[in-house]
Design goal:
With 299 residues, this protein is α/β, with parallel strands linked by helices. Helix content is 31%, strand content 21%. The protein contains 8 helices and 12 strands. The chain has a 6-stranded mixed sheet with strand order 1-6-7-8-10-9, with no helix packed on it. A 6-stranded mixed sheet has the order 5-4-3-2-11-12. The longest helix has 21 residues. The chain is globular. It starts with 5 loop residues before the first helix and ends in a 13-residue tail after the last helix. The relative contact order is 0.16.
Length: 299
């Protein structure tokens, strides 16, 4: 017969249900083991839109080079929208593009595989997901060895060699909006969702950061990265204001500080300042006297 028997169908539904629930549990919090002891940096790269004429390409190159140079203790992730990837009624905007689709994929592959950055995570944005099935980004990310690759967002627990864990909730954007506060949706997540050390988002091409303390007495940092699309005809069309704070953001993490310390996690003013401070902080960490290993007793 063409259709499965009822027994086969029920067995199939059991297996599918179990698989879906197992996946839900497994993806609630990804854990990434960091090898670097002491202070580390988390580079949150804003929306690149790498094929857009309005992308500040020199700044993008500079930040990628910094991440590659300090890869031993700077762990990079991308908040999504690697390219414009126009679809539907927005395909008309391809008429304004000076980079064709084949060239765009070469640029995306260079950023993910060829620029020297080892991507710890990739959060795919709406522009990335518009590719639908048979997305070239699937094999590009896989061949690049991206650690955690998820649509929309993910939570990651970075486990440090000293046994502590830094939790980050990254989404292309969080639910909720306010014309008065660009971080409204991130604060909303803290009140009604998980309580993590770091919350980061992109999508809206505006930047902001703030600190607060949750109900458990743990300071946390909220950051919205503005990305690299600094010249934007759509922004002019809707009359939005320029807020280019944090094209990318550098989060400084000191795992030796307790969760109640203001020095546990914080956002540097710029990526460059964050690298400079982190380099100094690691030099100080590495110069500390280490406890000598006790000699083994002879039996």
């Amino acid at each position: 017969q063409r259709d499965r028997s009822l027994a086969e169908l029920i067995a199939h539904r059991r297996a599918e249900s179990e698989r879906a629930m197992e996946y839900e549990d497994a993806t609630n919090l990804f854990r990434v083991d960091l090898k670097a002891s002491g202070p580390v940096g988390l580079l949150i790269m804003g929306d690149p839109h790498i094929d857009s004429a309005g992308c500040d390409f020199r700044m993008l190159e500079s930040h990628l080079a910094l991440a590659a140079k300090h890869a031993e203790y700077v762990f990079a992730g991308n908040i999504g929208d690697l390219q414009d990837n126009w679809i539907g009624r927005l395909e008309r905007l391809y008429a304004e593009s000076t980079t064709n689709s084949r060239e765009t994929w070469r640029l995306v592959e260079w950023m993910m595989r060829g620029c020297g950055v080892k991507w710890t995570w990739l959060c795919r944005g709406n522009h990335d997901l518009w590719s639908g099935r048979s997305d070239p980004l699937d094999w590009i990310a896989k061949s690049a060895g991206v650690g955690v690759d998820q649509p929309h967002g993910m939570r990651i627990g970075f486990r440090h060699p000293n046994g502590s864990e830094t939790r980050m909730h990254a989404r292309h954007d969080f639910k909720g909006n306010s014309i008065y506060n660009p971080l409204h949706s991130l604060k909303r997540e803290v009140l009604h969702g998980h309580r993590d050390h770091i919350l980061v988002a992109g999508h809206r091409h505006i930047g902001a950061d703030a600190r607060d303390v949750n109900g458990d007495g743990m300071p946390f940092v909220m950051v919205r990265v503005s990305g690299y699309k600094v010249a934007d005809s759509y922004r002019l069309e809707i009359g939005a204001h320029v807020k280019p704070l944090h094209p990318s953001a550098m989060i400084i993490v000191d795992p030796d500080e307790p969760d109640t310390s203001n020095g546990r996690v914080w956002c540097a003013p710029t990526v460059e300042d964050g690298i400079d401070y982190l380099t100094w902080k690691r030099e100080r960490f590495n110069s500390r006297p280490r406890a000598k290993a006790k000699p083994k007793r002879r039996k």
